Amino acid sequence: MRLGRRLKHQRVDESLSPTEMSVLGTLARCGSATPGELARREHVQPPSMTRIVALLESKGLVRLEPHPDDRRQKVVSQTEQAEAMLEESRRKRNAWLASLAEGLDEDEWAKLRAAAPVLEKLAHLTPPSGS
Predict the structure, then answer these.
(1) What ranges in 43-131 are assigned the alpha helix state H?
(2) pLDDT of residue 70
(3) d(C-alpha 18, C-alpha 11), whole Å
(4) Smallest Cα–Cα separation from 61: which of 24, 15, 9?
(5) Closest C-alpha to 16, from 75, 82, 64, 67
(6) Four-residue CA torsion sign, 101, 93, 39, 117
(7) Neighbours of 54 (CB within 10 A)
(8) What are the residue ranges in the chain where pLDDT is below 50?
Protein backbone atom coordinates (compact mmCIF):
# COMPACT_ATOMS: atom_id res chain seq x y z
CA MET A 1 0.00 0.00 0.00
CA ARG A 2 2.85 2.34 0.81
CA LEU A 3 4.40 1.78 -2.63
CA GLY A 4 1.02 2.42 -4.25
CA ARG A 5 0.62 5.70 -2.37
CA ARG A 6 4.14 6.78 -3.29
CA LEU A 7 3.49 5.91 -6.95
CA LYS A 8 0.31 8.02 -6.96
CA HIS A 9 2.44 11.04 -6.11
CA GLN A 10 4.60 10.48 -9.21
CA ARG A 11 2.28 12.26 -11.60
CA VAL A 12 2.71 15.05 -14.08
CA ASP A 13 -0.32 17.20 -13.25
CA GLU A 14 -0.45 17.86 -9.51
CA SER A 15 -3.73 19.74 -9.94
CA LEU A 16 -5.57 16.46 -10.54
CA SER A 17 -6.73 14.41 -7.56
CA PRO A 18 -5.89 10.70 -7.36
CA THR A 19 -9.58 10.01 -8.11
CA GLU A 20 -9.49 12.14 -11.26
CA MET A 21 -6.32 10.33 -12.37
CA SER A 22 -8.00 7.01 -11.65
CA VAL A 23 -10.99 7.93 -13.84
CA LEU A 24 -8.65 8.88 -16.69
CA GLY A 25 -6.81 5.60 -16.23
CA THR A 26 -10.08 3.67 -16.36
CA LEU A 27 -11.05 5.44 -19.59
CA ALA A 28 -7.61 4.64 -21.04
CA ARG A 29 -7.88 0.94 -20.10
CA CYS A 30 -11.59 0.31 -20.74
CA GLY A 31 -12.51 2.90 -23.35
CA SER A 32 -15.44 5.30 -23.39
CA ALA A 33 -18.18 4.85 -20.80
CA THR A 34 -21.24 6.55 -19.40
CA PRO A 35 -20.86 8.41 -16.10
CA GLY A 36 -22.90 5.64 -14.44
CA GLU A 37 -20.54 2.94 -15.73
CA LEU A 38 -17.55 4.98 -14.55
CA ALA A 39 -19.15 5.40 -11.10
CA ARG A 40 -19.57 1.62 -10.79
CA ARG A 41 -16.00 0.93 -11.95
CA GLU A 42 -14.55 3.55 -9.61
CA HIS A 43 -16.84 2.62 -6.68
CA VAL A 44 -18.22 6.13 -6.22
CA GLN A 45 -21.76 7.48 -6.19
CA PRO A 46 -23.14 8.71 -9.55
CA PRO A 47 -23.47 12.36 -8.37
CA SER A 48 -19.77 12.31 -7.39
CA MET A 49 -18.83 10.95 -10.80
CA THR A 50 -20.91 13.66 -12.47
CA ARG A 51 -18.82 16.28 -10.62
CA ILE A 52 -15.54 14.52 -11.47
CA VAL A 53 -16.45 14.30 -15.16
CA ALA A 54 -17.44 17.98 -15.20
CA LEU A 55 -14.06 18.93 -13.68
CA LEU A 56 -12.17 16.78 -16.17
CA GLU A 57 -14.18 18.25 -19.04
CA SER A 58 -13.44 21.80 -17.87
CA LYS A 59 -9.72 20.92 -17.95
CA GLY A 60 -10.01 19.56 -21.50
CA LEU A 61 -9.20 15.98 -20.45
CA VAL A 62 -12.52 14.34 -21.36
CA ARG A 63 -15.31 15.06 -23.81
CA LEU A 64 -18.97 14.20 -23.52
CA GLU A 65 -20.79 12.89 -26.55
CA PRO A 66 -24.37 11.73 -27.07
CA HIS A 67 -24.98 8.07 -26.26
CA PRO A 68 -25.60 6.18 -29.54
CA ASP A 69 -28.63 4.27 -28.20
CA ASP A 70 -30.02 6.41 -25.37
CA ARG A 71 -30.47 10.14 -25.95
CA ARG A 72 -30.84 10.73 -22.19
CA GLN A 73 -27.25 9.66 -21.54
CA LYS A 74 -23.78 10.90 -22.46
CA VAL A 75 -20.63 8.94 -23.19
CA VAL A 76 -17.35 10.09 -21.63
CA SER A 77 -14.14 9.76 -23.68
CA GLN A 78 -10.61 10.87 -22.92
CA THR A 79 -9.01 13.54 -25.10
CA GLU A 80 -5.59 13.48 -26.75
CA GLN A 81 -4.43 15.85 -24.00
CA ALA A 82 -5.40 13.26 -21.36
CA GLU A 83 -3.69 10.51 -23.34
CA ALA A 84 -0.45 12.50 -23.50
CA MET A 85 -0.63 13.38 -19.79
CA LEU A 86 -1.23 9.75 -18.80
CA GLU A 87 1.69 8.63 -20.96
CA GLU A 88 3.98 11.21 -19.36
CA SER A 89 2.79 10.21 -15.87
CA ARG A 90 3.43 6.55 -16.72
CA ARG A 91 6.92 7.45 -17.94
CA LYS A 92 7.60 9.39 -14.72
CA ARG A 93 6.39 6.51 -12.50
CA ASN A 94 8.42 3.96 -14.47
CA ALA A 95 11.57 6.08 -14.15
CA TRP A 96 10.96 6.49 -10.41
CA LEU A 97 10.47 2.72 -9.96
CA ALA A 98 13.56 1.98 -12.07
CA SER A 99 15.64 4.25 -9.84
CA LEU A 100 14.37 2.38 -6.75
CA ALA A 101 14.98 -1.00 -8.39
CA GLU A 102 18.64 -0.18 -8.87
CA GLY A 103 19.04 -0.84 -5.15
CA LEU A 104 17.86 -4.47 -5.39
CA ASP A 105 20.35 -7.34 -5.39
CA GLU A 106 20.00 -10.50 -7.53
CA ASP A 107 18.25 -12.47 -4.78
CA GLU A 108 15.66 -9.69 -4.34
CA TRP A 109 15.14 -9.54 -8.12
CA ALA A 110 14.53 -13.31 -8.19
CA LYS A 111 11.95 -13.00 -5.39
CA LEU A 112 10.26 -10.11 -7.18
CA ARG A 113 10.07 -12.08 -10.45
CA ALA A 114 8.60 -15.07 -8.58
CA ALA A 115 5.98 -12.88 -6.84
CA ALA A 116 4.93 -10.96 -9.97
CA PRO A 117 2.43 -13.56 -11.33
CA VAL A 118 0.75 -13.86 -7.91
CA LEU A 119 0.49 -10.08 -7.54
CA GLU A 120 -0.94 -9.83 -11.07
CA LYS A 121 -3.55 -12.47 -10.22
CA LEU A 122 -4.49 -10.64 -7.00
CA ALA A 123 -4.89 -7.39 -8.90
CA HIS A 124 -7.60 -8.95 -11.08
CA LEU A 125 -9.49 -11.10 -8.55
CA THR A 126 -12.94 -10.10 -7.39
CA PRO A 127 -13.68 -10.53 -3.66
CA PRO A 128 -16.38 -13.02 -2.70
CA SER A 129 -19.82 -11.49 -2.28
CA GLY A 130 -20.34 -9.94 1.11
CA SER A 131 -16.77 -8.62 1.34
Answers:
(1) 46-58, 80-101, 106-124
(2) 85
(3) 9
(4) 24
(5) 82
(6) negative
(7) 13
(8) none
